Amino acid sequence: MRALLHRLSPLGLLPLLFLSARPAAGQDLSEMERRTTLHRLANGWAFLLVERHQAPVFAFVTIANVGAAQEQTGQTGLAHMFEHMAFKGTTRIGTRDYPAEKPALEREAAAYDAWQAERLAPKPDAARLAQLEKDFRAAQEAADAFVVKNEFGQIIEQQGGTGLNANTSADATRYFYSLPANKVELFCYLESERFLHPVLRQFYRERDVVMEERRMRVDNNPPGRLIEQLVGTAFLAHPYGRPAVGFMSDLQSFTVEEAQAFFDRYYGPSNLTTVLVGDLDPKAVIPLLETYFGRIPARPSPPPVVTVEPAQGGEKTVVLQDRSQPIYIEAYHRPALTHPDNAVYDALDDILTNGRSSRLHRSLVRDQKIAVDVGSVSALPGPRYPHLWAAYAIAAQGAPHDKIEQAIHAELDRLKSEDVEPGELAKFKTRSRAQLLRQMESNAGLGLLLAEYQRLFGDWRELFRELGRIDAVQPADLRRVAAATFTAANRTVARIETTAPPATPGNGR
């Protein structure tokens, strides 16, 4: 359950305790300002260059301000789909002969469009449908003949690159890997190429891969189904209610033309931020950025998300009946990560669920023995807009959900009426400090932190200013925020009720 929640949460780094810590020695704001250069190209692409000369390597992360929240009705999963397609190469990489491949890809797209039009017709003709599918499969095979599989990744690995990957969340898509310091120009070439000349080859084969991801993470995974329905129920209006992996019917229907339009709309330079951390000389790197990334034309900024989730006004409940173990989750609406009370929410989260000494673990697991595991997830499904904080419990054998619910509510009510112990608040700050130190040790970890703050606040320095807000948290703040947040009207409950397997001949009465 914990692993699944991390996969479905942005970055797999939730709760965001790294926000609540003191920086490592030598990494205070003044020191970071001395070592950090912000360079914005004329086309709008922002680059942060952080000098760290301990080893001859560097890491980067590029964040696109696009995720499930930016998708249109009927196109859920398209942001995640494009994350996959970004590794398929360009007009120069991943192809044996692009001038010949291009018309083959156009024939494949046309064949698919014809097949889909018949499939979605009010009364599809079975014989025609079968022939159109056959035509599409033939066109697909013909286009595949030009593909050099995984050439993009192979180039990076052959040049000493590590950690090549990407992820998509509710409001962002991230691309990252590391390279030796003498490969900066290679990085500039490869990364600019896949945003300048992307080729959506093998689109429909990769769409099948994404559909299989959905089956594994949601359709065939009871906790995944429960979380998807919890979030979808909690958000009536805001696009956060849509799953990042997409709905199956949308995955089966969106086209390569729609994916290209999505890229054109949301992957313009002004919607991208890149952070490079490592053995870098900004005076040498900036001309390379201008040469390679400056080739990409400026495009209009995409439209903002304007929908605001209305106040809930009453408890909502989701019940799934499944043969899996019983699970109980309750979620509460909370403000965006940029809200001044974010540090208070981090403290509440830590006190309730961080470790065996946390309040929910002591109450439900150790003392009452009604749960075998408890935990929480913040920024569900994403941090940029007002979102959810959720607590969950895996019920012990025979423990009813109402006892778990009562135990959780008792601890939440304590936070409203009693000051937390000074030691609890101190432990939160100590743990958070240690977690941030670990995160900042690596080039990749520091790059990810700075990129997220630049994306969310428009200023990476807010990572360090958050520390003062943490220090300012008082017990009265915890009572105030708990009283405003942990109310029945603001709550969405989701649970799995375990059902018995169907009786089989000779095994039932």
In a nutshell, what does this entry contain?
The chain is α+β, with helices and mostly antiparallel strands and 509 residues long. The protein is built from 19 helices and 11 strands. Strand 4 and strand 5 form a beta hairpin.
Shape, per Cα inertia axes: globular
Write the element-wise H/E pattern from the N-terminal end onward.
Answer: HHEEEHHHHEEHHHHHEHEEHHEEHHHHHE
Number of strands: 11
Percent in strands: 15-25%
The level of helicity is 40-55%
The average pLDDT score comes to: 91
Class from secondary-structure proportions: alpha+beta
Low-confidence blocks of residues? 2-26
Q: How large is the radius of gyration?
A: 25 Å
In spatial order, strands of the major sheet run 1-2-6-3-5-4
Oligomer: single chain
Could you tell me how far the N terminus lies from the C terminus, measured between alpha carbons in angstroms? 34 Å
Largest sheet: 6 strands, mixed
Please count the helical segments: 19
Can you offer a commentary on this structure?
There is one protein chain. By secondary structure, this protein is α+β, with helices and mostly antiparallel strands. It has 19 helices and 11 strands. The strands form 2 sheets. Strands 1-2-6-3-5-4 form a 6-stranded mixed β-sheet, with helices on both faces. It has a 5-stranded mixed β-sheet with strand order 7-11-8-10-9, sandwiched between helices.
